[in-house]
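User: For documentation purposes, I need each entry recorded in a consistent format: the amino acid sequence on its own, followed directly by the corresponding structure tokens. There are two entries in this batch. Please keep commentary to a minimum and don't merge the entries.

Assistant: Recorded as requested. Entry 1:
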Amino acid sequence: MSKNKFSLLVIVAFFAAFFVNVETKAQTSSVFVVGLKAPAKIIYAPRQDFFLVSEAGIASVPNSGRVSIITDDGSRYTLIDGLPSGPGATNGASLGPSALWLDGDSLYIAIGNGNATVRGPAPGTEIPNPNPNSPIFSSVLEYNFSPNFFRRGHFGYELSVSDHTRLANGETLFLGGFEQQSATLRLAADFPDFAPSPRPDVPNNVQPSNPFGLVGVGNRLYMADAGQNNIQTAYLRNGRTQVFFAYPPRANPSLTPPAVEAVPSGLRLCGNKLLVTFLTGFPFPAGLADVRQIDLETGAESQLIGGLRMAIDVLPIADEGFCQTFYTLEYMSSATTPTSGRIQHFISPGRQPTVIVNNLAMPTGMALHPNGDLLVTEIFAGRITRISNIP
């Protein structure tokens, strides 16, 4: 072999080894923020260059819901506190602020069902609560701030119970007072807290609402209702709401029970399509959860990514306006292991995914950092985990 050919082979081998090393660089996970009050969803605010996280609150503390600002160094600042929250009827976990949607200077905050319902007299039943913590559960609040609001530092407002009543009555709150007028808060949409679901043994049984996904398109908001198993629309001009798309129960492959609820758990927007993740109901069969899409122009609905378990969020990555790759988040990938939350990367919907991490503690939302890291909320651990070196 000539010296030139040998040198060429050495160079080729060097670069091959280099690229293999880059491609196989392991993902690293680190705790980014702790001490949160049941963090549900997280979004990035590009104009302000920070993150916003919704916190469902503390079950034993009425109306302890909160939205926090998270900066790049992991510091937390309160944006607004005292938001509606209360223990859910099913397991007593706090239900409060959930999904977030940012449109310019307007932040839309979905509020969960709280304690609008309580356990009924028979197993698996719920009845209306005559004394809920707040009159604005199952709603969307619009938090509107001035362009230099965050520079002035006029945030950190805490709502009172009387503020909840004023919002329910259609008033707009001026946070910080009329003189500063740093931000306003109003009730943008109010969804029914529950729908009648009478049973022979419990005539007043109801099926609760549970807003858990939110995106905006023009003058409309789309809300994923994990309790009613549908996507609802709210018109921002008049607050009118209606069901946009309803999802029936799904056949259970294990046959016990014969069907499970769909449970839409998250919403994303990609071009003119809504992407919807599905948790499904107990016993959360493997492979039954998925990501589905709705074309907002034609109304056509179809599966985008299948074969998941307890899917709770999806993050599309757009290239030249088209969503080419996707990260999926599963609350648990094993129905019996709370620390089996999983993120997978799909180069395309039909390709075999790459597992990024599979040991998260009941994650509920994720956001992409400008540097390519993923930030993930873990609701019961009260923290945000940062995942680096992702493909």
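Entry 2:
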Amino acid sequence: MATLSLEDVTKVYDNDVEAVRELSLDVGDGEFVVLVGPSGCGKTTALRMVAGLEEITSGTVRLDGKVVNDLSAKARDVAMVFQNYALYPHLTAHENIGFSLAMRGVKKAERDRRVREAAEVLGLTEVLDRRPRQLSGGQRQRVAMGRALVREPAVFLMDEPLSNLDAKLRVQMRTEVMRVQRRLGVATLYVTHDQTEAMTMGDRVAVLREGVLQQFAPPQELYDRPSNLFVASFMGSPSMNLYRATVTDRGGRPALALGSQSLELPPARSTELRSAEGAVVVGIRPEHLSLSTGNGAAPNGHTLAADVELVEALGNEQLVHFALDAPLYRDTDDVMVVDETGLAAGEGIAGTPVANSIARVDPEAKIDAGGRIELTVDVRRLHLFDPQTGAAYPHG
């Protein structure tokens, strides 16, 4: 067993493109760590530097405390599982799994023993004599995992190994990968762009953006306590609703003005806004909105009146797409940008309801598109961010 650590690891290509900037994280013995982020954020580059397939510009990679920067990929005690399986089409599953052992001169009897042990762990015993074209996508991926498994490495590196599978098989294989990793107890660094995979698989998750680490924490902490607006919007499906708001006073109590409506803040949350200077970004998770039991009277300090745009019935829940007259917050990299007037680009007229907000509600509720509803907000679970820096205000 071993540990892996990256200390201020940076990668700059010859064209001066900085793919990874001062990345520091650690993977404990037997820990499953996930690198997640949008395409092009540097997560695969980071993985390849650990594997020895990419030269490190600066920083240090340690394997079980030993610096491995100058070791070749072959000399590092790591095994990598790629996105495209990379199986030899003319070899059987047995031969593919044992190929690296054969190249290392491992005797046939020992090679066969290790291949069959790996096949039993991965549920491949019945298909060892088949070639890749005779295997399903999930079986091919397990053969690729088996090839890494038989090497008995100190660290597993996995680069989006499930991205070529269909949705149902991906869910099954997520469970399979976690089961094998837990059984072996090998430190694992896993790359994905799918935040659902990251949330369900990782002991800890590192969120990257443009080569920079945004937050490194257990999945639930990322979800409940995102450190900034990027993490808040990236983690969660459907993503967090984000609005530009103004800190106001409502009957002597602090409140947040969202367009023509406002939300009262409990005392425990109001202390967060001492440095807000009026402007703030408010985040509301879809599950922290519920249908109000009110009778259509004027909204109170914990409810918002909304126009229903679309209803998605998913069986166990409904996703209600709704519009408020509050301006949405959009990152500057996004298509829609909120400018200094508080309007989304292309919105046109002040006060026009802005769509693309989502509430997760009871599947039994009767909601019609085009109607108007009242949504109760769990104000204790609001997320508050500095609109200039994007940093989260500490929770009260």
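Summary note for entry 2:
The domain at 4-234 is CATH 3.40.50.300 (Rossmann fold).
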